[in-house]
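Here is one chain, start to finish.
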Amino acid sequence: MNVLMVTNTYCESTAAYRLHKELHNQGVNVKLLTLKKSNDDWTVISPSSRIEKFINILRSYADQIPVKLYKYKSQTLFSPSWFGFSNIVHKINKINPDIVHLHWINGGMMRIEDIAKIKAPIVWSLHDNWAFTGGCHIMWECERYKNNCGSCPRLGSNKDNDLSRKVFNRKQKVFSQKKDITIVGLSHWLNECSKNSALLKDKPHINLPNPIDINVFKPFDTNTSRELWNLPKDKKLVLFGANSATSDINKGFKELSEALRQLQGKNIEFVVFGSSEPKNPQDFGFKTHYLGYLHDSVSLTTLYSAADVMVVPSLQEAFGQTAFEAMACGTPVVCFNATGLKDIVDHKKNGYLAKTFDTTDLKNGIEWVLNHDNYDELCKNAREKIVKKFDSKIVAEKYIELYKELLND
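Its structure:
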């Protein structure tokens, strides 16, 4: 069985590479095709010539040209995936895999029309909403994907035949041509959204989570972790982090800030990763540590282990990677009771599910965890949940079963 995974960019921390690595460990002949490579893994295929690398840098900018015509568009990503002149499909078909496993293919990596040209059956792991919408990656309250998009709130458009409708129509044509696509929703919520979409409702669906290496993400001594990060041992540490943690409106820093201002007691310090300290940092009434971007699993593991609670106040998550990383390290998680995070956190067992976008209840959740009479049990439950449900070995075995089923049909 030859499997080719395809994703725009990757590093060792991405779900695509973690799954790729575990499939390889279990004897699957798997390779990963990407536009950007960050290590010397021989099983990862990426452009080698300088010209190709330079063109690939320009792709994401070129793909955004039609979006820039909408002056009232939101800050969230919208991908029309129109830019051609890519040899990705040629590379895929030349490799001639038994299964092509798509992950995040935006940023100018592929045109929508390229999907229909892939000869092998496709497994497509959805990491956001893009596959079943008219171009948005985060749909929030909009449900136009259930019909035919148009008048897109993410574009700030009030026209039916806008860019979202055109992208929708292109996808509809391609998905009708390419019959052998199996959709993987990383969470029950995302899987149901896709199954109820006009574009993908006729495709077979399965719910499989992201994998995590529980031998890498595991509890580390708290005091030693705090020494490594120069964090106080006599304070309760509230941790928050994501890529562009304080600037990405979807990650919920605004909502978390409102919750932190309501916290009672001063024996607390706040720790942020994924963003540097701003020019004018907010005053929450207690010290805040800005640690910047982290790029390796060891740093993340020690930081999660240093914290008393991890807060993931995202407005929408396809899954919730930081949540299950923190729980794998034995750190309880507080989040909103919404979207993909509901698959990870069990209310008042290994964390706290706050009422949807209620900042006061988010505050309540943080205090509930920090002041819990049996805090050690919360930590134990958090670790056990990840070991039983999301260990990379278990997840990879389920993907192998899926591949075999598709090849035997």
